[in-house]
Amino acid sequence: MAVQIETTDLDGVLILTPDRFTDTRGFFSESYNQSALTDAGIETLFVQDNHSFSLNRNTVRGLHFQSPPYAQTKLVRCGRGACFDVAVDIRVGSPTFGKWVGVELSFENGRQLLVPAGFAHGFVTRVPETEVIYKCSNEYAPHAEHSLRWNDPSIGVDWGMLSSDVVLSDKDAQASFFVDLQSPFTWEVTA
Ligand SMILES: Cc1cn([C@H]2C[C@H](O)[C@@H](COP(=O)(O)OP(=O)(O)O[C@H]3O[C@H](C)C(=O)[C@H](O)[C@H]3O)O2)c(=O)[nH]c1=O
Question: What GO molecular function annotations does the UniProt record carry, in alphabetical order (predicted)?
Fold first, then answer.
C-alpha cells in the first residue's frame, strides 16, 4: 500500500494521497497506515480521531490550535463532500511565520493534509454535508485551545468565497486577531 507524498510551501506541511483500489463495487483505500508514514519519515503517533460534519457550504471551522505541551499534529481528510483545508505557521522564529497554505481535500480526490504542531488549522466547506475526519497527536485540551480570527488580514487566507457567505460558530466569530494573541508560544522550530 503506497502513499504519495507532496510538499507544500510550508516546511513540514505535507499532502498525502493513499492509493485507491477501484473495482466495479467502488474503491478500497488504507486511509491510515502507521508504517507507511514511518517509512516516509513521519514519526508522529496519533491518539485521537476527530470527525466533524457541516451541514452547509462555506462553513469555516478554525483557525484553531492547542498550545504546547498539548500541541497537536493533525492528519486531515474529507470523508464526504469537499473542503479547502488551511494551515498557518505560528511558530515564532520560523522563516514562514504567519504564512499559510491551503489544499482542496475531497471524497473524490482522497487527499490528506498533514498539519504539524506549531500550525493553526482550519477549513471551509465547499459543498453541503461535508465530513472532515482527522487524526490528532494529542488529546483535546480545552484549556490550551486557542482560536485565530479566520479572516485576519495579517494572515490573509484566501478562502475562495465571499466573507458575507461564511457560516461560523460564535466562538470563531469572536476569535483573536494574530497581533493580539497573548504570550506567543515557543515551538520547536525544526531547522
Ligand atoms: C475539538 C474538540 C471539540 N470537542 C467538543 C467541544 C465542543 O463542545 C464541541 C465543538 O467543538 P468546536 O466548536 O471547537 O469544534 P470545531 O469548531 O470543529 O473545532 C475544530 O476545528 C478545527 C478544524 C480544528 O482543527 C480543531 O480540531 C478543532 O478546534 O466539541 C471535543 O469534545 N473534543 C475535541 O477534540
Answer: dTDP-4-dehydrorhamnose 3,5-epimerase activity
Q: Is residue 191 included in any domain, yes or no? A: no
Domain span holding position 27: 3-186
Question: Is residue 166 in some structural domain?
Answer: yes
Closest CA to 116 of 30, 52, 188: 188
70 is catalytic: no
Q: Is 57 in the pocket of ligand 1 (CB under 6 A)?
A: no
Convert the pLDDT of each residue in 65-84 to its tens digit: 999 999 999 999 999 999 99
CA of 50 to the centre of ligand 1 (A): 8
What is the C-alpha separation between 76 and 115, in angstroms, rounded?
Answer: 8
Residue in the structure block whose three cell numbers are 507544500? 8
Asked whether 22 lines ligand 1 (CB < 6 A), one says no
Q: Average pLDDT over the chain, rounded to whole?
A: 93
User: So what's the ipTM on this one?
Assistant: 0.98
Q: All 3 cell numbers of residue 79? A: 470523508
Q: How many CB atoms lie within 10 A of CB 60?
A: 25
Domain count, the chain: 1
CATH of the domain at 153: 2.60.120.10
Which atom of ligand 1 is closest in space to residue 132's alpha carbon? 23
**Catalytic (active site) residue 134:** yes
Q: How many A from CA of 52 to the centre of ligand 1?
A: 8
Task: Record the pTM.
Answer: 0.95
Helix or strand holding residue 170 (H, E): helix 170-173
